[in-house]
């Protein structure tokens, strides 16, 4: 869900441009894809997980570092009339790698070309010749696309005129459902979320805007791999900055999100334990020229 949200808000390039009038309003409009449109998406994330257990005045600490990069070119093959998103498109994966504690491995999608088709509320995955993909490749795509039932940007940024500096409250119940996995139980009543239009400007005669999204969710219990009650202060938070075209004329974009999670609990035997996870996710979308036809 986090990558999906980051991609949905990735609606324009950060550029030096003329500033729009302070009292001018901005209304977010979706870019309408066309057959032949090509974009390059680069998805990078880094995380550090630090766990500490204190037992009988003995301190045990473990640190795990992870990073991941996925880069692919997406080409629109079909789109239904009246819709803005492709219903059939091709992805050519240029790189898909994960590094854990300095050791890098290729992911199943590395170097693969796949065709993705939306049929109703489900997705079908094949290779360029219409044949079924290898199990690992299909599993990776299914994990990503089974979450794409709605456009999360609609939940985070209102489709109404906004002024620079204007803020709005997020639907925290919906946000908790989207962000918190089934491995945790959250305190929905104490969750808070807000968004702000931080700036608006003109570039090449087109409207651009900057957005800031914040979300804080207290968590009370971990349910997987084992069930553990968490102490007060345990929480996850998200801080996103996104910038880009808001009048629907450009698909380029950049978004950066910082995620953090703190878990405080006791392990069997009465030992005090804490786990902190910090991560940064960056996603860019670059418009490419149409493919040359023979």
Model description:
It is a single chain. The protein is mainly β. The chain has one domain (2-288): Lipovitellin-phosvitin complex, beta-sheet shell regions. The protein is built from four helices and 17 strands. The strands form two sheets. The protein has a 15-stranded antiparallel beta sheet that branches. A two-stranded antiparallel ribbon has the order 2-9. A hairpin with a 2-residue loop joins β12 and β13. It starts with a helix and ends in a 6-residue tail after the last strand.
How would you summarize this macromolecular structure in one to three sentences?
With 294 residues, this protein is mainly β. Helix content is 10%, strand content 53%.
- The quaternary state of the protein chains shown equals single chain
Give the % helix: 10-25%
Shape call: globular
What's the end-to-end separation, in Å? 39 Å
Number of domains: 1
Number of strands: 17
Indicate the CATH class.
Answer: Mainly Beta
In CATH terms, what is the architecture? Roll
What is the SS-derived class?
mainly beta
Number of H- or I-type helical stretches: 4
What's the alpha carbon Rg, rounded to whole Å? 21 Å
CATH topology: Lipovitellin-phosvitin complex, beta-sheet shell regions
Give helix and strand order, one letter per element, not per position. Answer: HEEEEEEEEHHEEHEEEEEEE
Main beta sheet strand tally, sense and closure: 15 strands, antiparallel
Uncertain runs are 1-5, 11-21
**Residue-averaged pLDDT:** 86
Percentage of residues in DSSP E strands: over 45%
List the helices and strands and how they pair.
Layout (H helix, E strand, L loop, with lengths): L1 H7 L9 E2 L5 E2 L11 E18 L2 E21 L9 E13 L2 E4 L6 E7 L2 E5 L8 H11 L7 H4 L5 E2 L3 E3 L2 H8 L4 E3 L5 E12 L2 E17 L5 E2 L5 E11 L7 E15 L3 E18 L6
Antiparallel strand pairs: 1-12, 2-9, 3-4, 3-17, 4-5, 5-6, 5-7, 7-8, 10-12, 11-13, 12-13, 13-14, 13-15, 15-16, 16-17
């Amino acid at each position: 869900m986090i990558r999906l949200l980051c991609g949905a808000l990735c609606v324009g390039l950060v550029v030096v441009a003329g500033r729009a009038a302070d009292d001018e309003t901005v209304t977010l409009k979706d870019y309408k894809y066309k057959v032949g449109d090509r974009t390059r998406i680069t998805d990078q994330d880094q995380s550090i997980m630090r766990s500490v257990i204190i037992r009988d005045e003995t301190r045990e600490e473990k640190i795990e570092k992870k990073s991941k990069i996925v880069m692919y070119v997406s080409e629109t093959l079909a789109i239904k009339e009246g819709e803005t998103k492709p219903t059939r498109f091709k992805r050519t994966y240029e790189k898909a790698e994960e590094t854990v504690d300095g050791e890098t491995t290729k992911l199943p999608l590395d170097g693969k070309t796949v065709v993705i088709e939306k049929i109703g509320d489900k997705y079908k995955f094949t290779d360029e010749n219409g044949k079924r993909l290898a199990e690992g490749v299909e599993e990776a795509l299914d994990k990503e696309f089974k979450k794409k039932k709605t456009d999360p940007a609609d939940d985070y940024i209102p489709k109404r005129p906004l002024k620079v500096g204007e803020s709005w409250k997020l639907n925290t119940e919906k946000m908790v459902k989207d962000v918190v996995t089934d491995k945790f139980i959250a305190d929905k009543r104490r969750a808070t979320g807000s968004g702000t239009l931080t700036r608006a400007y003109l570039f090449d005669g087109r409207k651009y805007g900057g957005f800031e999204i914040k979300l804080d969710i207290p968590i009370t219990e971990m349910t997987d791999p084992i069930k553990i009650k968490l102490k007060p202060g345990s929480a996850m938070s998200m801080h996103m900055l996104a910038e880009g075209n808001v009048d629907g004329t450009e698909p380029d974009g950049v978004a950066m999100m910082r995620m953090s999670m703190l878990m405080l609990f006791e392990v069997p035997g009465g030992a005090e334990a804490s786990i902190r996870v910090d991560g940064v996710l960056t996603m860019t979308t670059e418009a490419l020229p149409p493919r040359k036809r023979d």
